Amino acid sequence: MIEIGSFIKLQRTKQEKTLGELADGVVSVSYLSKIENLKTQASPEIIKMLCDRLGIQVDNREEELIKEKLNDWYSMLFEVNNKEDIIIAYEEIQEMLDRNLSENLLLFEIHKIRYFLILGDYDEAAKKINELKGLSNNFDSLQQFYWFKFRGNFYTLKDGDYNQSIKMYNVAEERISHIDISEDEIADLHYIISVTHSKLRNTLEAIEYANKALNIYMKLYNFLRCAQCHNILGISYRRIKMYDKAIKNYNLALHLGKLNNNGQLIQLTNQNLGHLYSVKGDSNEAIKYYLEIINNIEVQPGDKLASIASLVKEYYIIGNYEETRKSVDYGLALMKELSNIEPYKLFYYVIHTYNFLLNEEFESFERLVIEEFLPYLKKNKDFASLATHVKLLAEQYEKQHKYKAATKYFKEANFAYEQITNI
Q1: Which of 228, 142, 148 minimizes the C-alpha distance to 191?
Q2: Can you tell me the distance from the alpha carbon of 33 to that of 9, in angstroms, rounded to the nearest whole number?
Q3: 384 domain residue, yes or no
Q4: Residues 6+ positions from 20 with CB-CB distance below 8 Å
Q5: Which of 43, 114, 143, 345 is the 20 to 30 A CA-CA neighbour of 415?
Q6: For the whole model, what pTM was predicted?
Q7: Confidence of residue 60 (pLDDT cuts 50, 70, 90)
Q8: Is 305 within 8 Å of 337 (Cβ atoms)?
Q9: What is the dihedral of CA 8, 11, 12, 17, to 10 degrees?
Q10: What are the C-alpha distances in Å from 61 to residues 53, 58, 114, 224, 337?
Q11: Average pLDDT, integer, range 202-228
């Protein structure tokens, strides 16, 4: 059962009441503070007066029903189901908990962080985190597990702060030995940790945690999640140039994606395979995988842009300028169909960069790359793309016999490559 002091503090902060407003005419502010922080035990009469002021009836007759509905809702958050269904379930549970002193209240409040993240409401998620910080010292191990896991989710989704995320996930992992949770939950945390290490270019750690998650998912016959783990392993092995292992894992992911008829997973794996062959210098093989995505009529226009941008670069590398032009024109046409280009900014810059090159509009190319594209890549710490396009700029200067500028940008390209190896 949640401690009554924590319950009162939670409800007071939710209603944005100050200690003074709630205490007025009932108890002193200092005494209320002691109640909320579990430093004293108030009489039933005082508790009733405080709850009446908050408009709450201390009633736990619906506890079993609440627990059942909460477990269903937690499962919806875990699998990320239909948002409308999640919202309806949330509102029903919230109404029940507003009139009940439930032992599950704090866990529900912690899960609201995940709820708001799924809805894309990062401000509400931040607000909920700040609201719960004052209670976090009293969380039990299960509550701490989700508290740190969902805060890790928050740092990833809101700010892309993977260093802060991995700190949160590591603390959540430490709680596993103290709680009783499903293997699914453990595997999910290991998978998230592997993805976060991959984002940080901690390749060996990414491999370690992807394998931990994979071992559990194989036992559970969760082939979709197995495929996701194989993709992380493929990316990791590709980064350390173990190409055979990378291809093996990508092919396993592709096979499982087809078994599950999961178009998104098939598309992601084809993109990863294309990138692998591009890194190996095999443009023709890379093109084959990019075309698999582009020629799939079920793939949405926005989702094709990554493959089109990649295809443009590969055709240009092998000197097939006719196909480069066709791909650029296709990309320009697709971008006109998008109402918001911001999520696709990287591909926008790539396609326009090569468009200017093909048109021999060097001034426009130079202006776009130097004033917009390179600052964008630096801001997002995309050193791989930065190295590629700085080198492209240097090569254009070299062709124009502008050797001083070429040297400057070749050096910058080398620096970007160093950043990749140092990450």
Answers
A1: 228
A2: 9
A3: no
A4: 29
A5: 345
A6: 0.82
A7: low
A8: no
A9: -160
A10: 21, 10, 27, 40, 55
A11: 96
Domain count, the chain: 1
Q: Is residue 84 part of a domain?
A: no
Measured distance CA(405)–CA(420) in Å, rounded: 23
Task: Report yes or no: 262 and 226 within 8 Å, Cβ to Cβ.
Answer: no
* Dmax (CA) of the chain: 88
Tokens matching residue 186: 């453990």
Q: What are phi and psi of 214, to 5 degrees?
A: -60, -40
pLDDT at 394 over 70: yes
Residue of 135, 132, 116, 134 lying closest to 124 (CA atoms): 116
CATH code, domain with 43: 1.10.260.40
In a domain, 319, yes or no: no
Q: C-alpha angle with apex 249: 232 to 79, nearest 5 degrees?
A: 50
Whether 14 is in a domain gets the answer yes
Q: For all residues of the chain together, what is the average pLDDT?
A: 92
Model pLDDT, residue 423: 47
Domain containing 18 equals 4-53
Instruction: Dump pLDDT digits (tens) for 135-167.
Output: 898 899 999 999 999 999 999 999 889 999 999
